[in-house]
């Protein structure tokens, strides 16, 4: 018998001063049985960074043809494709061909090794950004995961903070590749 997803709910208050975006979406996320709390929380942070009314969580790990999050325009064309983790070259090349913009959020302590082996294979992808989130911070995010969460995300001057009212995590970012690199 196949294991089912675990449902998590998050009331996320977003104050993104860099984009002048201030909203409080109520999110429902399905956590795949093989997904860790840390990875799920990185998906949540990726949502907060790119939040808008068209951005949605996808089937993700349940469907290898879809990213973790995407934003489509009214015609169904993919404007933004977001992957979490360390996707392989094939996934990224396909994503870059199908979407206007592709963003990868890696977060493991081994991300530098993964990127070193992949960088030259995707250098021709001008619509690809790869951002490494601090591994210690994402581990702390994993410990924040609850089935029902009240979270506040603040983004200012490129810095990101996520708090659950008890603890606050500052999420450092390192850009491995930005669009047009």
Brief write-up:
The protein is an alpha+beta fold and 181 residues long.
Question: What tags apply to this protein structure?
Answer:
single chain; 181 residues; alpha+beta; 6-stranded mixed beta sheet; 4 helices; 12 strands; 23% helix
Secondary structure topology:
Blueprint: E1 6-16, E2 21-23, E3 26-31, H1 37-50, E4 55-57, E5 69-72, E6 78-84, H2 89-98, E7 99-106, H3 111-118, E8 128-133, H4 135-144, E9 148-156, E10 159-163, E11 168-171, E12 173-177
Parallel strand pairs: 1-9, 6-7, 7-8
Antiparallel strand pairs: 1-2, 1-3, 4-5, 5-6, 8-12, 9-10, 10-11
Helix pairs in contact: 1-4
General description of the model:
It is a single chain. The protein is α+β, with helices and mostly antiparallel strands. The protein contains 4 helices and 12 strands. Strands 1, 2, 3, 9, 10 and 11 form a 6-stranded mixed β-sheet that branches. The longest helix is centred in the N-terminal third of the chain and has 14 residues. This is YaeQ family protein. It comes from Pseudoduganella danionis.
Work out the helix count.
Answer: 4
Describe the largest sheet.
6 strands, mixed
Q: Strand portion, in percent? A: 35-45%
Q: Which ranges are low-confidence, i.e. pLDDT below 50, for 5 or more consecutive residues? A: none
Total strands: the figure is 12
SSE succession? EEEHEEEHEHEHEEEE
């Amino acid at each position: 018998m196949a294991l089912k997803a675990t449902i998590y709910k998050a009331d996320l208050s977003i104050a993104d001063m860099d984009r002048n975006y201030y909203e409080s979406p109520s999110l429902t996320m399905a956590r795949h049985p093989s997904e860790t709390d840390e990875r799920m929380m990185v998906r949540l942070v990726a949502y907060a960074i790119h939040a808008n009314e068209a951005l949605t969580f996808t089937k993700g790990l349940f469907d290898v043809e879809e990213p973790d999050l995407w934003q489509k325009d009214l015609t169904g064309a993919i404007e933004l494709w977001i992957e979490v983790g360390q996707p392989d070259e094939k996934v990224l090349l396909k994503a870059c061909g199908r979407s206007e913009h592709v963003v990868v959020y890696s977060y493991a302590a081994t991300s530098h090794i993964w990127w070193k082996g992949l960088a030259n294979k995707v250098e021709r992808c001008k619509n690809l950004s790869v951002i490494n989130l601090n591994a210690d911070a994402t581990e702390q995010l994993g410990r924040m995961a609850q089935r029902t969460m009240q979270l506040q995300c603040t983004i200012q001057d490129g810095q990101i903070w996520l708090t659950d009212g008890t603890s606050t995590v500052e999420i450092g970012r390192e850009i491995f590749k930005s669009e047009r690199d």
